[in-house]
Design a protein that fits this description.
The chain is of the alpha/beta class and 239 residues long. The chain has a domain at 1-41 and 55-66 and 178-239: 3-Layer(aba) Sandwich (Rossmann fold), CATH 3.40.50. Helices cover 36% and strands 25% of the residues. The chain is built from eight helices and nine strands. The strands form two sheets. A six-stranded mixed β-sheet has the order 5-6-7-3-8-9, sandwiched between helices. The chain has a three-stranded antiparallel β-sheet with strand order 2-1-4, with helices on one face. Helix 2 runs parallel beside helix 4 (134-148) and helix 3 (111-118) packs across helix 4. Residues 41-42, 80, 156 line the site of magnesium ion. Adenosine-5'-triphosphate is lined by residues 12, 15, 17, 35, 37-43. One of its GO terms (molecular function) is ATP hydrolysis activity. Keywords: ATP-binding, Nucleotide-binding, Transport.
C-alpha cells in the first residue's frame, strides 16, 4: 500500500504554500515531517485528509494491485489541538466512537481494554473530557486509531504535549502498529524524528524532499538539517 501525492498545490490568497509537492509514502514505515513554522505541514495534512481541498494535484491511496482504495475511513488525523466533545466522559466518548464506526472495526476490544492500553486510570475514565489534561486528550485521539485502524495515520505535532513517560509509551505503541499503516507525523523535535522515524521528509519551500539515509546516520546530521531548513527561510524572506 502506498500513499501517493502528486504535484499538490495550495495557496491562500497570493501566498503559495504548497508548490507541486510530490511524495510516495509506503506502508510499514514511520515518516517524520519536518518543516519550519508556517512551512505548510498542517496545510499538507489538511489536503491529504480532505479537510481542505488542494488547488491542484492528486492524493491517492493504492493497494498492492495498483487500485485506488481511498475512502472516507482511510485517513486517521490527529490534530495538534485535540477536537473532542468536552461534555462527554472519556468512557462515553469511546462508546459513542465505537458505535458510529462499528461496521468498520475488526477485532474490537472492550472499552476498558483500550483505556488500559493508553494507561488512563480507572477513576479518570468516567470524568468529563473537559477536565482532561492536554496529554490525556491526545491519548484519546490516539486510541481512536487503535480502534478503527485507518490505513493512513496523520499526527500533527502529537507527542509534544506528552510527558517523557507517556511519549515513550506512545512511541512504543506507534512502533508496534506501524507494520499495518502508513504513519506520518509532523514535529519540530529533531530527536523525536530521528529516534522514531524510518524516514525523514522535509517540507521545504513548498516541496517535499526525502532526507538521504546516509545523512541521517552522519554525525553532523543536525547541522545539515538546519542548513536545509534555513535555506527555506532565506528563500521566503527574499520572495
Ligand atoms: N486557512 C488559512 N487561511 C490563510 N492562510 C492560511 C490558512 N491556513 C494556513 N495558512 C498559511 O499557510 C502557511 C502554512 O501554514 P501551516 O499551518 O500549514 O504551517 P505549519 O507548517 O503547520 O506551521 P506550524 O509548524 O507552526 O504548525 C502559513 O503562512 C499560514 O499563515
Ligand atoms: Mg501546523
Amino acid at each position: 500500500m502506498e500513499l501517493i501525492l502528486k504535484d499538490i498545490e495550495k495557496s491562500f490568497g497570493d501566498k503559495q504554500v504548497l508548490k507541486k509537492a510530490s511524495f510516495t509514502f509506503e506502508k510499514g514505515r514511520i515518516y517524520g515531517l519536518l518543516g519550519r513554522n508556517g512551512s505548510g505541514k498542517t496545510t499538507l495534512f489538511n489536503c491529504i485528509s480532505e479537510d481542505d481541498k488542494q488547488d491542484s494535484g492528486t492524493v491517492e491511496l493504492v493497494d498492492e494491485t495498483g487500485n485506488d482504495i481511498m475512502n472516507y475511513s482511510s485517513i486517521g488525523y490527529a490534530f495538534a489541538q485535540p477536537v473532542l466533545p468536552e461534555f462527554l466522559t472519556g468512557y462515553e466518548f469511546l462508546k459513542f466512537y465505537i458505535d458510529v464506526n462499528k461496521d468498520n472495526i475488526q477485532n474490537l476490544l472492550s472499552i476498558d481494554e483500550y483505556f488500559d492500553i493508553i494507561k488512563i486510570e480507572k477513576e479518570d475514565r468516567y470524568r468529563l473530557i473537559k477536565d482532561y489534561s492536554f496529554g490525556m486528550k491526545n491519548k484519546i485521539q490516539m486510541v481512536c486509531f487503535l480502534i478503527t485502524k485507518p490505513p493512513v495515520i496523520l499526527l500533527d505535532e502529537p507527542l509534544t504535549s506528552f510527558d517523557v513517560v507517556v511519549a515513550y509509551e506512545i512511541k512504543q505503541l506507534l512502533k508496534k502498529i506501524k507494520s499495518d499503516h502508513i504513519l506520518i507525523f509532523s514535529t519540530h523535535i529533531l530527536e523525536l524524528a530521528t529516534d522514531l522515524c524510518d524516514d525523514i521528509v522535509v517540507l521545504n519551500n513548498g516541496q517535499l524532499e526525502l532526507v538521504d539515509e546516509e545523512l541521517l546516520k552522519s554525525p553532523d546530521f543536525e547541522e545539515k538539517i538546519m542548513d536545509i531548513l534555513k535555506e527555506d527561510s532565506d528563500v521566503s524572506s527574499v520572495s
